[in-house]
Design goal:
With 404 residues, this protein is α/β, with parallel strands linked by helices. Helices cover 29% and strands 22% of the residues. The strands form 4 sheets. It has a 6-stranded antiparallel beta barrel with strand order 10-13-16-15-14-17. A 4-stranded parallel β-sheet has the order 2-3-4-5. Strands 7-6-8-9 form a 4-stranded parallel β-sheet. Strand 4, helix 6 and strand 5 form a beta-alpha-beta unit.
Length: 404
């Protein structure tokens, strides 16, 4: 078992920075090796991206941001990324999709409102509502359920209405929404603070969806009901400039963390990757001509060559397809990934020289070279850019840099 002091000493030995005031994630009670792979989370990149997204979402009248932190903050870690997002002036609110994520943010010290964009049971509501976690009702039974919760807690439930304007996945269908909104408003059990929808990421239809949400607000206002802040625009809408969807606030996820939603989005503005996936060299070996590397001998040498084995693999979120052309940075030089990316190991070809030593740091994904950008690694590996974030291993050590 490793206590906090032991962990910090080990993390320092591994080269992981520690920033005062930024909580570290809770770790399993198991020894931590300096040879385990890790993530460096760049706080300055998150701040830069939030500023860029706010500008893209409104020009001189930058829209406030509802920062989506679902799926473990897009892989960066809720306990790490949540407090960093919480302190950014452009961020008005954080958003998640599961009750456990909302609780994790509060436990990590997040003070700003947290929007739960998913269902919660009555027992979960009784725990979440006192923590000022904003709910997103969408079921016909919501007025009755929220009425019971408000009565038991002796306080109204803060809500953003979850409206389906054409995605047909979640939300109250917009055609059924007005009488339902009236029932909620008349119940006295809720405080309606906003309404939102999910876009299908087809620009023309996205505009129609935003118009439907605006029409609902107008219809509700005609009946004396203010449904508050409207939001719809995801990273896709912001980066592609679908300004009709920007409404009162934008709700990006991937863009905040430095990932581009498409090649076309690269032309909309510069974002900075917010993390580095790093590992150490575990083994350096010289191979003779004709020898194969890793499972199935998919890569064999045609001349003597040095290779290095890194302690990171697809279980950590590094794509198996990296052997299709991805590179790794060691001692300032890029080396190709060869063989097979296995669960816990990746092999790179060093060339004719012994260009690395056991214990060297290797960067597999990050901002240091264009070849390491998450979008470029995804392109070469045949992956979605979202996978480069959301598949990052939950067990990876996470440290914060550039927090000042």
């Amino acid at each position: 078992m490793l206590n906090r002091r032991g962990f910090l000493a080990t993390a320092a030995a591994a080269g992981l920075p520690h920033v005062a005031g930024v909580p570290r994630p809770k770790l399993a009670e198991a020894p931590i090796s300096i040879f385990d792979p890790w993530l460096e989370i760049d706080a300055s990149a998150l701040a830069y991206n939030a500023s860029a997204v706010a500008r893209l979402g409104g020009g001189s009248n930058a829209r406030p941001i509802i920062a989506v932190a679902k799926n473990n903050a897009y892989g960066l870690g809720l306990e790490v990324a949540g407090p960093l997002l919480d302190r950014l002036p452009e961020v008005r609110m954080l958003a998640v999709v599961r009750p456990s994520e909302a609780l994790a943010l509060r436990n990590a010290g997040v003070k700003k409102p947290v929007l739960l964009m998913g269902p919660a049971s009555e027992d979960e509501l009784l725990e979440l509502v006192p923590l000022d976690v904003v709910q997103s009702p969408y079921r016909a039974a919501a007025p009755a359920i929220l009425g019971k919760v408000a009565e038991r807690l002796q306080r109204p439930v803060r809500i953003h209405l979850y409206v389906d304007t054409g995605m047909h996945r979640m939300g109250i269908p917009v055609g059924q929404a007005l009488p339902w909104v009236e029932a909620l408003a008349k119940s006295g059990a809720v405080r309606i603070e906003g309404a939102f929808t999910e876009l299908v990421e087809d620009p023309e239809f996205d505009r129609q969806q935003a118009a439907r949400l605006r029409a609902l607000k107008a219809d509700a206002a005609a009946r004396g009901i203010d449904i508050g802040t409207l939001h719809a625009a995801s990273s896709d809408a912001v980066m592609h400039g679908t300004s009709e969807t920007f409404l009162d606030a934008v709700r990006p996820g991937l863009a905040l963390y430095g990932g581009y939603v498409s090649e076309r989005a690269l032309q909309r503005g510069e974002l900075r990757p917010s993390y580095r996936l790093k590992a150490r060299v575990l083994r350096v070996d010289r191979l003779e001509a004709g020898e194969g590397v890793s499972y199935h001998r998919r890569w064999t040498t045609d001349k003597p060559i040095w290779t290095a084995t890194l302690g990171v693999g697809h279980v950590d979120g590094y794509p198996s397809g990296a052997v299709k052309g991805c590179e790794v940075l060691i001692r300032g030089k890029l080396f190709p990934v060869v063989g097979t990316v296995s669960a816990s190991h990746t092999v790179v070809a060093l060339g004719a020289e012994e260009s690395a030593q056991v214990g060297d740091e290797a960067t597999l994904v990050g901002p240091d070279r264009p070849a390491l950008h998450p979008n470029e690694v995804a392109r070469r590996a045949g992956w979605s850019e979202y996978n480069m974030f959301m598949h990052l291993g939950a067990s990876l050590r996470r440290g914060v840099i550039n927090a000042q």
